[in-house]
Amino acid sequence: MTKPIVLSTWNFGQPANEAAWKVLSTGGRALDAVEAGVRVPEADPNVTTVGYGGRPDRDGHVTLDACIMDEQGNCGSVAGLEHIMHPISVARKVMENTPHVMLVGDGALQFALESGFKKENLLTPESEKAWREWQKTSQYKPVINVENHDTIGMIALDQNGNLSGACTTSGLAFKMHGRVGDSPIIGAGLYVDNAIGAATATGVGEEVVKIVGCHLVVELMRQKHSPEDACRLAVERIVERQPKKSRDIQVGFLALSKSGEYGAYCLQKGFNYAVRTASRNALLDGKSHY
Ligand code: ASP
């Protein structure tokens, strides 16, 4: 059994894992680890798909989505949240301090401000420049391609054998105002069942929502599929449903079992994920369907 262990999507997962590892390696709770971990790319202006520095929507608003889930099945989520650098921490407060699971838009902002979060401008000069460039050629048409998105999803198993997960994103660059993908949707962008395992997703959220991706991955693990196999079967579900479309988009799943076994699978080559244990600190390539 490998524990503690933390996994996260993409190469910005490595510095995020480091922050999570500080919590896990000192006997801390997986929930605290995943929150601390994903706060790293949220605050990094050079990560253009998460938090501060995330690309705005087509109207120039940086709107953020995040969710978190603990070992007891509690969860919290925010979507379309503006002006707050750490949506994951707001999602955790929704989970812990309200009777609800999800707050969106102005209501999420109001709750964040009441909870003591600072209102900030999240549109960096670089993001504004990229948006102005996009405006020149886009004709205000939102596009989905393999480049204009990427989310940090993080899943962890702590010393006590408990699982938790967190997922946070600015979503698709230059999306329609109000667009929400899979990342803040429990069961789609993230799912944790402390008896079985945890999964998180990245890529075109619309396709992940349509198959309730991460819940599917965890249910496949319940049926005794390995984490990699469960991720592969979820990817194949997308291909079966939309063989043509699946060639042009990216979706990746990452999963961790209760025993610390892990795996990933994606549609296109190019999805990588970071793993951190006491003996391993690596960036690995997910196997791909195409
Ligand atoms: N899943 C995210 C979304 O659709 C984007 C990504 O992870 O690439 O908002």
Task: Please provide a written account of the structure.
This protein has a single domain, classed as (Glycosyl)asparaginase (Glutamine Phosphoribosylpyrophosphate, subunit 1, domain 1, 4-Layer Sandwich), CATH 3.60.20. The mean pLDDT is 96. The chain is globular. α2 packs antiparallel against α3 (87-97) and α7 packs across α8. The protein contains 8 helices and 13 strands. The longest helix is centred in the C-terminal third of the chain and has 15 residues, at 227-241. By secondary structure, it is of the alpha+beta class. An 8-stranded mixed beta sheet has the order 4-3-2-6-5-1-11-12. The site of aspartic acid has 13 residues, from β8.
Multimeric state: single chain
Helix content: 25-40%
Low-confidence stretches: none
Mean pLDDT across every amino acid position: 96
Q: Count the DSSP helices.
A: 8
CATH homologous superfamily label: (Glycosyl)asparaginase
**Would you give the CATH topology?**
Glutamine Phosphoribosylpyrophosphate, subunit 1, domain 1
Strand order of the largest sheet: 4-3-2-6-5-1-11-12
Q: What proportion strand?
A: 15-25%
The tally of beta strands, per DSSP, is 13
Which class of secondary structure composition applies to the elements? alpha+beta
- Shape field: globular
Please give the radius of gyration in angstroms. Answer: 17 Å
Enumerate the distinct ligands.
aspartic acid
CATH architecture: 4-Layer Sandwich
Order of helices and strands: EHHEEHEHHEEEEHHHEEEEE
According to CATH, what is the class? Alpha Beta
Largest sheet: 8 strands, mixed
Count of discrete domains: 1
Q: For the record, give the distance between the C-alpha atoms at the N and C termini, rounded to a whole number.
A: 32 Å
